[in-house]
Hints:
The chain is α/β, with parallel strands linked by helices. The protein has a single domain, classed as Glutaredoxin (3-Layer(aba) Sandwich). The chain is 36% helix and 21% strand. The protein contains six helices and seven strands. It has a seven-stranded mixed β-sheet with strand order 2-1-5-4-3-6-7. The longest helix has 19 residues, at 68-86. It starts with 5 loop residues before the first helix and ends with a helix. Mean pLDDT is 86; it is low at 1-22.
Amino acid sequence: MPRLPKFLAALAAFSIPSVALADLKVGDISPTFTTKASLAGKEFDFNLDSALKKGPVVLYFFPAAFTEGCTIEAHEFAEATDDFVRQGATLIGVTAGHIDRVQEFSVSECRNKFAVAADPGAKIASRYRAKMFGPIGWSNRTSYVITPDHRVAYVYSALAPDAHVANTLAVVKRWKSTAHSG
Length: 182
């Protein structure tokens, strides 16, 4: 399994969570997109507008399939997928890779639990201001919670994968409780 280059691993070790790393802010309208995705190794077209009709979407960008941190994050999201589904949320991971690599990742690391999408050239990541700085062309590790009205409810950027799942699930739960009480 490929590992992050040493300088990226060092950044991950000292990563400070920050919404400032992503230009989209809470309350912003999320860019819409359609892209090739895979769930359990089966390719399909993922459309954000369609997903938002069902409830909130947890959209998380990750640098590269089969790297150490991305594998850890995928495993954690896979373990929490049922919790997201109980809250009415759709979960989608996006990486600046190609669909064949994403299909394999969706089976082995996402454990057939949630979809991952290909973003060749990090075009979607760029629209979300989640593209990693530098010449690599990878996505940054940034998680968004988007509500059905296309508003960004939460942004979390940190190269370390540790808190993305817990943070986004907490926001989805809060959103659901306030959406149903108001």
